Amino acid sequence: MTNILVTGGAGYIGSHACKVLRDAGYVPVTYDNLSTGWADAVRFGPFEQGDLTDRARLDEVFRTYRPAAVMHFAALSLVGESMENPGKYWHNNTYGSLCLIEAAVAAGCLDFVFSSTCATYGEHDNVLLDEDCPQHPINAYGASKRAIEDILANFGESHGLNTVIFRYFNVAGADPDGEVGEFHRPETHLIPLMLDAIDGKRPALTVFGTDYDTPDGTCIRDYVHVMDLVDAHVLGLRWLEAGKGSRVFNLGTGHGFSVREVIEKSRAVTNRAVPITEGDRRPGDCTKLVSGSVRAGEDLGWRPHRSTLETMISDAWRWHQTGHYDR
Ligand code: UDP
Predict the structure, then answer these.
(1) What is the pLDDT of residue 146?
(2) Between the CA of residue 307 and those of 32, 151, 252, 265, 288, what are the distances in Å?
(3) Which atom of ligand 1 is nearest to the CA of 191?
(4) Could you tell me the CATH number of the domain that includes residue 215?
(5) Spacing, Cα 231 to ligand 1 middle (Å)
(6) pLDDT below 70 — which residues of the chain?
(7) 77 belongs to a structural domain
(8) What is the pLDDT of residue 177?
């Protein structure tokens, strides 16, 4: 059995990744400090609690499991919070990743899959984003992730580290089997907040900004189903196993939806009214982030077949209605 070290395996995307890794015949070893994750989401392999910045603990875990590769999901990922407290993002995301990368290289574990973000691109007027677009992040979250991409490139040149970097667009939905799903405290993401409002758990969803330069005035995002996203990670792992070397891939569908379009689709899927209020723009939000890349399809054979807005919202809604959500 091949061990894969999964940082952030107790979180939303990491827990779904552990499930598909287990299903693909790997042993996902979760390394997570539980700052935003949940011990009961670690269901598909061993759990080692620890912090990215704790080098001695990392070394011990590498020694114990001798993982063939690292999948590095653990990160803080809230744009708004990153604008209020950038130091927290540089410390946890960038410095923490440096500790992890150094530990991996020291252990001779040279295949590394990294969760980056479309937030590294920043504002590009009405352009669909591909991997060669210049990266000018406008928030500290994106900046902290771009810096990690630079570190990985340097370690590739100097230490032979092979990296697959995935730049995620907006991840949504949940495991259709209902074993794991999205659960953040506090919740800040559009779809789960909207489902809360529909369900009466919050008075209303606040639409952040209605004066953007878009057809209906609200921000546009490219939503990708979490199961499709983690499938890409298994394909990325196989790419590295085949010795194909370092590569960057966008993970988005190429279709953008405004906040108002997501609201309308949620109303249709749940057949319930969505209470909303209109508020100010949220600092750090880009107007439009939509992938214009076909690289993951061409190189990895990735097909995001669950990533319709309807399927993402109905899978999220099903998960939302399980008892898990109220823990
Ligand atoms: N959004 C919103 N109200 C909310 C949360 C999000 O209008 O309560 C908007 C946000 O401004 C952005 C989009 O929904 O345009 C997606 O935001 P989310 O926080 O889900 O993901 P992000 O794009 O920040 O990664």
Answers:
(1) 98
(2) 27, 31, 9, 14, 18
(3) 20
(4) 3.90.25.10
(5) 24
(6) 323-327
(7) yes
(8) 95
